[in-house]
């Protein structure tokens, strides 16, 4: 059987046979034109967004919370290519086709608290009996036998509709727009200043980078919050204009001379600026870009790879990025994890997040205040090394509202450690119980976190004990969260650096003000962080022991 015929058979299995003749012609055209069957006919005509949780017709609020998060991932203001079910990253999908979306929403509307929805790379396998304490959804995306986890195999499997690329929070229904990475980006820029320049005063300093997509779009806002001049090249005018219209980008230009003039003016005035340049960061090839980076670095520029496996791809292209005597994941330049964020992760700090399911901005403002108060109380009794992180994060959450970062759901990102996450979750849950917060709150995190991801060229690139290509941590995290109280869990192949290069997972947990929700949050969050900050034969995060010793005194 040809691959085209197999792809059609796979797509038509969602429909009764008497519809096959009409649909087969449409699906064949889609496959030939786009390389995949998206089933555009079944794309809903409703305004896709995160509606208040009580508007979803469900038997359990746990299911309703998943529906809300799915629809937020497909909101046109949030998603990169919503018609193709791509949330971010060019190919990070929520589902593989629109039939899957409709089936999943139906299953969730019928689900009870004694059932679990099983998801196979976008395909809903069905509702299965489970316990009230079990997750309401178990999601796997791109799980492939290791010898077949190549890009070529991905293209074939994706065309057949049997696997998909969920990126990180796209396929796990936990994306919160560009805000999801902006706190981490701000911390990266701030700590780069401390490391390379010996100062956290970045006024008049220039950050040159590229990309204004679903994740990279955070760079503009982060630069301004950090106080520097951010110049971001973007070759596609659509995301460039989108970020400008959303208030994430202050200025736009396509004139390189005007761009240089504005950089000089902002440097002199020491005023924060985010400037989007419509054009490529470099023309032609990776090798040419690396040659320019090498020359500028010799002149005093500090360069780091910010998470898209740039140095790995440059090495594969034959560019001069080799590090003499370096290991398998070491290059001439560091990744941001190796030089900056690795030590932050090793202290247990990572991108905790929550979504106010009421959709009411007042609930978000209140939860911001709750989180800030909790962190201020904890910070009085931590080591000096940890206190700097707390101070950075308290400043962040106290100022978050004024930076107008909400795109889509009423959500907040906040770097926090194990104790902070647990205490914030319990405090928010109590506020829901006291009816100060008007509706349940979903807590989650980015997969790019302390223990959610095994990624040798990004999150775990600072592992030097030989275990860098092992993926036990991410898998154990997925399994451990599942039986410790998560409302849903996910495990993905690929995310950030590419298919076959990383294993990562995430969770969602609904806080509804009950004692059961508090118990789940405490049990699960303690595991979710401590799994990555641990002592053992594959001690992933080198700075952890110092903090553990400090706390034990």
Automatic annotation (TrEMBL):
> SUPFAM superfamilies attached here?
Urocanase
* UniProt key word NAD: yes
Q: Does the keyword Secreted apply?
A: no
Name the gene. Answer: UROC1
- Superkingdom, taxonomy of origin: Eukaryota
Q: Where is the Urocanase Rossmann-like domain?
A: 177-284, 286-340
Q: Where does the Urocanase N-terminal domain start and stop, copy by copy?
A: 48-174
Biological process according to GO:
L-histidine catabolic process to glutamate and formamide; L-histidine catabolic process to glutamate and formate
- This chain's protein is named Urocanate hydratase
Which GO terms of the molecular function aspect are on file?
urocanate hydratase activity
Reported cofactor(s): NAD(+)
- UniProt xrefs under Pfam families: Urocanase, Urocanase_C, Urocanase_N
What keywords appear on the UniProt entry? Answer: Lyase, NAD
| Domain spans labelled Urocanase C-terminal | 343-533
């Amino acid at each position: 059987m040809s691959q085209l015929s197999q792809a059609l058979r796979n797509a038509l299995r969602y429909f009764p046979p008497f519809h096959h003749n009409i649909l087969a012609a449409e699906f064949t055209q889609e496959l030939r034109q786009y390389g995949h069957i998206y089933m555009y006919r079944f794309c809903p005509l409703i305004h896709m967004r995160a509606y208040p949780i009580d508007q979803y017709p469900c038997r359990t609020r746990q299911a309703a919370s998943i529906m809300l998060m799915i629809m937020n991932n497909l909101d046109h203001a949030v998603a990169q290519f919503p018609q193709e079910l791509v949330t971010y990253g060019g190919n990070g999908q929520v589902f593989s086709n629109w039939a899957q979306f409709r089936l999943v929403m139906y299953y969730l509307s019928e689900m009870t608290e004694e059932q679990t929805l099983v998801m196979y790379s976008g395909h809903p396998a069905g509702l299965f009996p489970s316990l009230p304490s079990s997750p309401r959804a178990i999601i796997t995306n791109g799980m492939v036998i290791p010898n077949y986890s190549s890009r070529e195999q991905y293209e074939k499997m994706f065309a057949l509709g049997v696997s998909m690329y969920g990126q990180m929070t796209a396929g796990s229904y936990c994306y919160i727009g560009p805000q999801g990475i902006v706190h981490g980006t701000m911390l990266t820029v701030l700590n780069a200043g401390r490391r390379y320049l010996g100062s956290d005063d970045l006024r008049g300093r220039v950050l040159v980078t590229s990309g204004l997509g679903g994740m990279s779009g955070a760079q503009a806002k982060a630069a301004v919050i950090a106080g520097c001049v951010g110049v971001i090249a973007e070759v596609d005018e659509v995301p460039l204009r989108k970020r400008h219209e959303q208030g994430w980008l202050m200025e736009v230009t396509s004139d390189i001379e005007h761009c240089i003039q504005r950089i000089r003016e902002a440097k002199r005035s020491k005023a924060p600026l985010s400037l989007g340049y419509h054009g490529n960061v470099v023309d032609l090839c990776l090798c040419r870009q690396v040659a320019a980076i090498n020359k500028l670095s010799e002149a005093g520029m500090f360069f780091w790879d910010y998470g898209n496996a740039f140095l790995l791809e440059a090495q594969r292209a034959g560019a001069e990025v080799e590090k003499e005597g370096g290991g398998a994941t070491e290059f001439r330049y560091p990744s941001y994890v190796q030089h900056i964020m690795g030590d932050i992760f090793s202290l247990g700090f990572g991108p905790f997040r929550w979504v106010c399911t009421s959709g009411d901005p007042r609930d978000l403002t209140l939860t911001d205040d709750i989180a800030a108060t909790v962190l201020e109380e904890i910070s009085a009794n931590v080591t000096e090394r940890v206190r700097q992180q707390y101070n950075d994060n308290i400043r962040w959450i106290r100022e978050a509202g004024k930076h107008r970062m909400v795109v889509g759901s009423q959500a907040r990102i906040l770097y926090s450690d194990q104790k902070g996450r647990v205490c914030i979750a319990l405090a928010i849950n109590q506020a829901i119980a006291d009816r100060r917060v008007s509706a349940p709150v979903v807590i989650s995190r980015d997969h790019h976190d302390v223990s959610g991801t095994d990624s040798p060229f990004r999150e775990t690139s600072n592992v030097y004990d030989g275990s860098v290509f092992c993926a036990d941590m991410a898998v154990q995290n997925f399994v451990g969260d599942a039986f410790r109280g998560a409302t849903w869990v996910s495990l993905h192949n690929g995310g950030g650096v590419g298919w076959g290069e990383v294993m990562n997972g995430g969770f969602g947990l609904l806080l509804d003000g009950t004692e059961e929700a508090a118990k789940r949050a405490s049990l699960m969050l303690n595991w979710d962080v401590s799994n990555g900050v641990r002592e053992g034969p594959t001690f992933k995060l080198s700075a952890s022991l110092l903090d553990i010793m400090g706390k034990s005194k």
